[in-house]
Amino acid sequence: MTPHGTLYGLVLAGGRSSRMGQDKSRLSWFGRPLYQHMVSLLIRAGIGQVLISGSGFSSDDDAVIDDVVPGRGPISGIHAALQRLQDGDRLLVIPVDMPLVPADAIRILGDQQRACCFEGFNLPVMLPVTTELRQAVERSIASDNPKDYALWRLHQLSGGQTLSLPLSMADLFVNANTPEDWRDLVNKEIVQK
Prior knowledge:
Layout: E1 7-12, E2 28-29, E3 32-33, H1 34-44, E4 49-53, E5 64-65, H2 74-82, E6 90-95, H3 103-110, E7 116-118, E8 125-128, H4 131-142, H5 151-157, E9 161-163, H6 179-192
Parallel strand pairs: 1-4, 1-6, 4-5, 7-9
Antiparallel strand pairs: 2-3, 6-8, 7-8
Helix pairs in contact: 2-4
């Protein structure tokens, strides 16, 4: 526990993966499920408390959070995670399908005390847990308008800032939505190794 509360990581692994044709979180990333790679990435970046938002994981695992209000995209996962956190904590949210994001980028966000993301990217994002954040998420999740589930709106309502992304990292902020995207990411990782 720091004076600013606990820093938590949240891996968003509850999407429908409709364009991928299978559960992205279970894709094999060099011998292990993608969600496990993302948890390890957050731990390597210095985040000791990591939660996983999604269904189909072991119900015995305290790190797994089911959506309270499903079907709202990333807002559903953030909303569910906030039920577990205290005001003063910070939540670093990352999607399950960005395996190339460097641990250094996560550290940069993890060092922030304010709501922020990298310029041009809604995720990953740092969200300080405050009453205002809880209220903004509650308003978003209660809405019937899908536009209200947009992360850029939450970022705006949270007074979020943007950080410049180091050029050396820009090509690594890529997610996989289709089998073709996935092949490209795997090939990019092989080339980097």
